[in-house]
Design a protein that fits this description.
With 404 residues, the chain is an all-alpha fold. It has 15 helices and two strands.
Length: 404
């Protein structure tokens, strides 16, 4: 890999280049080195940012004419890219946040920060190498950064280990901010395939964030008057269910428009909060209600089946959820979806057999020996199933998944 060579050959002295290489390698999954995973490389990129001082605004005290506008734009873009990865990896890996925004005064990114480096390119160069709708895609990126700030607040309020218990007013205030997030217009006409996909992808992030926010409050209650506790918790559960249903609608649009081929490595984890919500709903109601909820989950499983053609982690998620479904529906067939990779098995790298390290990060699993249903218990699968079936938290599932 080019980025790995740039980082490891020892000849590169430009710290910005090393930062960029680390950030890009955060999307690469090693077959050999346990440490060479998204968490490691993103942490390296964040460290480079802070060593270089990119977490501070270079124009705070006095404008430095030796720093060009292009440099300022690049530095701002790199910092906020690291911030975005920190927040979403914190959620999807169940790990603490590395960036504290109280230590940073970098202004929020602008659409122009994404366009600065292409101003000098010829029309032929732009047409050959970049999408024509870069201004629109840049706006989507800014929306994701704004949303990521809110996600950080959600993780601190609901999942931080030593967090103070929030009040009803705290929860209501954060909810208002979440509902005010800027989002693309899903019904805008005339969009290209790329714009359609990324418009929907921003919404996938948003629904995952809403589920992450609402789910704990379906079982917990903040400080305050507990007189209407049950009604309040019921409303929060309904809101989480609605966000999960919205996720299914987004997936339906992506499938109908044949856009799943544009999915990136972040797409499979974004489906997990909705899948867990559907799974938990399968435990309640009469047989018809349970079947309807199972159908919603199966839609997500079918999309995961398609995504696993590119991302092995999707087959891991399918295997985990198939095992969980069978706990609720013992007669549920593990072979219901036809694929070259069995949904009730998880692959183990390098033909070494199942080990705890090989499941430390599900995204690192590659083709090799298979781990069947009976092996879940030996690898802590009972804890994983307990976390997956926990009514309160999507975060506990990520933590359990990464501790296997």
């Amino acid at each position: 890999m080019f980025e790995q060579c740039m980082y490891e050959n020892g000849n590169e002295r430009n710290k910005i280049v090393l930062l960029q290489a680390s950030l890009m390698m955060g999307f690469w999954h090693s077959e050999i080195d346990e440490h060479a995973q998204p968490w490691y490389w993103t942490g390296s990129a964040i460290s480079h940012c802070q060593i270089l001082g990119l977490h501070r605004d270079p124009g705070t005290s006095a404008y430095n004419p030796h720093i060009t506008d292009r440099q300022r734009s690049l530095w701002r873009r790199l910092w906020w890219c690291c911030f975005f990865r920190d927040r979403w990896l914190g959620l999807t890996l169940g790990r603490p946040l590395r960036i504290n925004l109280n230590d940073s005064d970098v202004p929020m990114p602008l659409t122009g920060d994404m366009l600065f480096d292409i101003d000098g390119l010829s029309e032929v160069g732009l047409a050959n190498h970049l999408p024509s709708e870069m201004p629109r895609l840049s706006e989507y990126w800014v929306m994701l950064i704004e949303m990521s700030r809110q996600l950080g607040d959600v993780l601190v309020m609901n999942y931080q280990a030593a967090r103070p218990k929030g009040t009803l007013d705290d929860v209501a205030m954060l909810e208002r901010r979440l509902l005010q997030c800027r989002l693309p217009d899903l019904y805008e006409g005339g969009l290209t395939r790329i714009s359609k996909f990324y418009s929907n992808h921003v919404h996938l992030h948003y629904q995952a964030m809403l589920i992450t926010f609402y789910r704990p409050w379906g079982m917990e209650f903040p400080e305050g008057d507990a007189g209407a506790k049950e009604d309040w918790q019921h409303r929060m559960r309904l809101k989480a269910d609605h966000a999960a249903a919205q996720t299914n609608e987004i997936l339906d649009r992506l499938v109908q428009d044949e856009l799943l081929g544009l999915a990136g490595p972040m797409t499979p984890p974004l489906l997990v909060p909705a899948m867990q919500t559907h799974l938990l709903q399968c435990k309640f109601g009469d047989s018809l209600a349970k079947r309807i909820r199972l159908n919603k989950l199966e839609v997500c499983m079918l999309v995961m089946e398609e995504l696993q053609k590119t991302y092995t982690v999707a087959s891991v998620y399918r295997g985990i959820f198939t095992k969980a479904i069978q706990q609720i529906f013992p007669d549920y067939p593990g072979h219901v979806m036809h694929t070259s990779c069995s949904p009730t098995s998880i692959t183990i790298p390098r033909n070494e057999g199942p080990t705890r390290n090989s499941l430390n990060n599900p995204e690192s699993l590659i083709a090799g020996d298979q781990l069947g249903d009976s092996d879940f218990g030996d690898l802590g699968g009972d804890d994983l199933m307990a976390a997956l079936m926990d009514n309160a938290s999507v975060f506990d599932f990520w933590q359990a998944c990464n501790q296997l």
